[in-house]
């Protein structure tokens, strides 16, 4: 695997508008409870697609599913590979990197160890050092705390670390599950400012959010998920003008 | 006082063995969440293998080859246990507990029936003889055990804190999902842990036999002690295991030497009960290194 190859092909593929992630009729159940009822979603090269919806709509279930953590019905294709029959290591190796809502950091390890483990699947040491610098530039707070244990950091710092660790894995598609949940406005701004530089690295992003304003600010296209079903799709401009979205999610 | 010095030397040597047994036990728990009750049987396997390899009535190879053979045999059996059984029931702790207990029981009885019967057995020491330092006479085997255990403990510490694979072991122990999202194959890491822990148990089995004698049921007592030690030190903590091993080893040796040898195993349990009441998270809590 090589970051150079991937970023190089990314530029070419943007022009041809190739598809990074394609979910077709995805269904997931937990026992008798149906969490996803036939979700279709498409994410193109270099796009930031946001999946919005209330708590319990199935956003995290969708993220877990596309990253190979759950059995599902239907089809999920990442770069033409069927996720259901690909191992998780293989998905990570091919650049599908998941930043979970729970963050799942290595609590008793310091910031730098967490970040370097983010590059576990990468053998190119030069890339790792270079990307570490990119992450520290993106989140200077992390560089001030390289030797601090992850579990002793604030929620916002942990979120930066989780995103940073995901970036260390040389993502081609970054799945960000509710990165803004429970964060103070100042931190929200830090996360917000990180999105553009990440996209400039040629990374496509799937972003789930309850914070509809945040999603509207960053997304190229959006899907509204309710009760496990996609009920609306469109560009931020289209959804801003939608009465239902305005009344239900933007406070009228 | 010579006898006091000897008690201390024995305590150090025994504690060192407990430490490498407990490290294996705590690693398997920390990484896979498995309380491996077949850990004691792996000690027996190491001892029985060295008996077959180096006892003069069997193959009669050099005791060092018996030590290596005991280590390798235990590691192989441990790997088979993980690949053949444990990985399929990893998410069911109660099933695992019962299963590893029964398998351990079965292995020890198989050793009794097919290899050594009910009689004790012995193997030659790697380093027979004595050394006198400052008027105190030490058995060379005690020195050997202490040095080898110290090297193994230090090597384990360096391995988990400095190497990529070692850090991956810690990562899995801290967050399985976190490990998965960075591309660590938890199955591979679990297998490495089982190999390492079983090899350590095998080495301990051989060394216990060299120092004392071996028997088909010899793994049971150290298993109970290892359990006490890792609770004492904090489940999943390597540092805690080493400290716990020395506390238990010294308490045990001093009690059996100065009070009564019938109290063997008893003081460890008393310590365990007191600690569970006073500081249930162990001396070092749930820290993975």
UniProtKB/TrEMBL annotation, chain A:
It comes from Haloglomus irregulare. It comes from the Archaea. One of its GO terms (molecular function) is ATP hydrolysis activity. The keyword Transport applies. Keywords: Amino-acid transport, ATP-binding, Nucleotide-binding, Transport. This is ABC transporter ATP-binding protein. Residues 21-252 form the ABC transporter domain. GO terms for biological process: L-amino acid transport. Belongs to the ABC transporter superfamily.
TrEMBL record, chain B:
It is found in: Cell membrane. GO terms for biological process: amino acid transport. It is a multi-pass membrane protein. One of its GO terms (cellular component) is plasma membrane. Its main location: membrane. One of its GO terms (molecular function) is transmembrane transporter activity. Pfam families: BPD_transp_2 (PF02653). The chain crosses the membrane at residues 7-28, 65-88, 94-115, 136-160, 191-210, 222-247, 259-278. Keywords: Amino-acid transport, Cell membrane, Membrane, Transmembrane, Transmembrane helix, Transport. Belongs to the binding-protein-dependent transport system permease family. LivHM subfamily. PANTHER family: ABC TRANSPORTER PERMEASE PROTEIN, BRANCHED-CHAIN AMINO ACID TRANSPORT SYSTEM PERMEASE PROTEIN LIVH. This is Branched-chain amino acid ABC transporter permease.
